[in-house]
Amino acid sequence: MNNVIEIKGLTKIYNSSEVKVKAVNGIDVTFKEGEFTAVVGPSGSGKTTFLNMLGGLDRPTSGQVFIGGVDIWKLSSRKLIDFRMNNIGFVFQSYNLIPVLTAGENVEFIMQLQGKPKKERLQRTMELLESVGIGDRIKSRPSKLSGGQQQRVAVARALASKPEFILADEPTANLDSQATSSLLELMSHINKTHNTTFIFATHDQRVMDKAHRIITIEDGKIISDEYFDRN
Amino acid sequence: MLLSISWRNIWRNKVRSLVIIFSVALGIFAGVISASFFKGMADQRINKVINTELSYIQVHHPGFEQTSDFDNFIANAKEIQSELENISNVTAVSRRMSIQSMAASAETATGVLISGIFPNNEKKVTSISSKIIDGKYFEGISRNPVVIGKKLAEKLNVKVRSKIIITIQDMENNITSGAFRVAGIYSTNNNMFDESNIFVRFTDIQKLTSFPKDAAHEIAININDNENLLSILADVKDVTGNKLDVKSWKELSPEMNYLTEAMNMYMYIFIIIILMALLFGIINTMLMVVMERTKEIGMLMAIGMNKGKVFSMIVLESVLLSLTGGIVGIILGGLSSKFGETHPIDLSMWAQGYQQLGYDAFVYTSLDPVMLVNVTILVIITGVIAAIYPAYKALRNDPADALRIE
Predict the structure, then answer these.
(1) Which of B369, B393, B275 is nearest to B323 (CA)?
(2) Chain B contacts of A90, Cβ < 8 Å?
(3) Which listed residue, of A55, B29, B39, B188, carries a Cα 20 to 30 Å from B64's Cα?
(4) pLDDT tens per residue across span B252-297
(5) Residue of B169, B190, B221, B279 lying closest to B59 (CA atoms)
(6) Which domains does chain A show, CATH number per domain?
(7) Residues of chain A positioned with their CB less than 8 A from the CB of B306
(8) pTM above 0.90?
């Protein structure tokens, strides 16, 4: 399997007026193609900061993030935005869909930013929404969808740009247990059938139970990195 | 899709957006209707000056304008007149004598400007004949008829058929007098003009002063359309050569030309002041919009929307908000102004003051389509300016920080 992400000496220090806080403290780790990884740890352990630096959202104080061989923090801010658009899919805790767009338009939006032709966009939007099981809600606005359905649209949106991997920050935190297990089934299915790499930051035991790899972070450091055979 | 997102975003908070749209619509409506009103007023004033006083083009002896001297006349005026009548788009030509003199009734005397005219020609150039309110235009009095203004009639305390003595200087610089009888009294609603201008037949005053028969102090030319003014002016100059002074109404009455330009300028200043007041309301709304959507904008930037597109989205939202109000205001203002073109606004309550200055008591609005286009552009510019600061604030958001907002 190819290395998708290589992280070297990743550090983030928040300088407040009185104290320096090391949110992430020199992490070295590699993610391979097709991995289904959960990054776990108590609140304030640094997992969201770690994911943000990995996703090109939060600039590290030091260290490097290579995605497909590209040192992303050496890119200009303009190029970094394009890089995120083409290589990273995001799924957020509170879904974060565009409320004025329908489910279909939310998925199509990112392909439009990529400049894909309309025919291709519409076809892929339909395929993606059907694959996440809500093809019949293509014309519904987010406010008309349940939390679980909204998170499925978010997964479809994250997949729309055909990214190298998907970062999901607490994707199940706002969902009930039924919606959680069905979302996890869906992501696990996508991971198996399309070999899509998923990295979750989570507290949720149900997510951990599905993960093939669990990285535990405490005080900004990896304290354990374990692999599990879920087949 | 940006346009679609921006348009739908406007309607996320309907009440707030409608308040802004209504304010812009009201402001633009007021601007358009006022502009049409003042333009109508100025147009009416200018048309009146052309039709009653100036005509479109006048030809004089080069020295006449400065001194109005009796001796500064065009010797071959009759010949020039017939040549001018052949120019295309010239509808009528009238030659006149123009003399400063004293008019006296049995009670009092006052200085007046006498125009010696050929009544049938003059009818085609100026509209005094249609302004007669008492008596008739050079009819009913066979010997030395005179047409005077209402204000002068009141001042001299004369009526139709009353006698007026006119005292003037003749060709030999002798003071001479003639008895004239009032044939008609006109009223142009311009009191200053009515008080100081009287009209007599060219032949009568010519005999009284021994003025050459074929000469004139002034040749007045009427044309079919002000649009043709410049080309006809050039043709007239060709006919008269460089020996005579040829001037359009704009040069003869620069204050009238200035009136149009000044009205135009005031209209735009007025509309810009309205838009500046609205600008702050729109900035306030757009700031609220951006602050409420900090997390959403952070998410858009996270998933790959670049700063240019975020900026465009906010500017588009502001422009659409302003333009919706602007278009409503322009349509309402435009329709009201169109209505006012056939249904005059009655200012007769204050007419005396207006008439003193030469304005009509009934004002027809005059809608300028170019102004509507310019107002639309100004509204768009206002929308763009209003968005700059809020968009700048939005772009300063760090996506990672924005996404942490609960």
Answers:
(1) B275
(2) 299, 302-303
(3) B188
(4) 888 888 888 888 898 899 999 999 999 999 999 999 999 999 999 9
(5) B221
(6) 37-45+74-227 (3.40.50.300)
(7) 78, 81-82
(8) no
